[in-house]
Amino acid sequence: MYQFSYDEAIEDDQAEARSAERQALDQAIGLLQAADSAGLNTRATVEALYYTRRLWNAFVGELASEENALPVEVRANLISIGIWILKEADSVQLGKSRNCAAIGEICAIVRDGLL
Q: Could you please report the per-residue DSSP string of the chain?
């Protein structure tokens, strides 16, 4: 009986965490879409890149943690995606890329995988 309650609590915590991650990715996607529409060197782009970097730095940090329960291969793949996003965000900020839309698309793919 107590084990069942504990398992339910853990499952609820995981569902809440996935929901929060989806919401954070939704926010990044919206900001990146606005940045793509506004163009480079705009406040919208600065805000989108700042938020997206903070989000993915947090994700990568959590994924790299030994305490993360995801399988190692999944964690490694998500870390690789995060590194690409961070590098691409730097390239956009430096004017070497205009890929806000691509960053948003990758965020959407990751978000959609959070079932």
A: -HHHHHHHHHHHHHHHHHHHHHHHHHHHHHHHHHHHHH-SSSHHHHHHHHHHHHHHHHHHHHHHSTT--S-HHHHHHHHHHHHHHHHHHHHHHTTS--THHHHHHHHHHHHHT--
Residue carrying the six token digits 């989000």: 55
pLDDT in tens, 14-57: 788 889 999 999 999 999 999 999 988 899 999 999 999 999 99
What is the residue whose two structure tokens read 């398992």? 7
Residue 110 has φ and ψ, to the nearest 5°, of -65, -45
What integer pLDDT is reported at residue 3 of this predicted model?
52
Q: What range does the domain containing 49 cover?
A: 2-112
The residue among 94, 104, 87, 84 whose CA lies nearest residue 40 is 94
Name the domain count of the chain: 1
Per the listing, tokens 């730097």 go with: 90
pTM for the complete prediction? 0.86
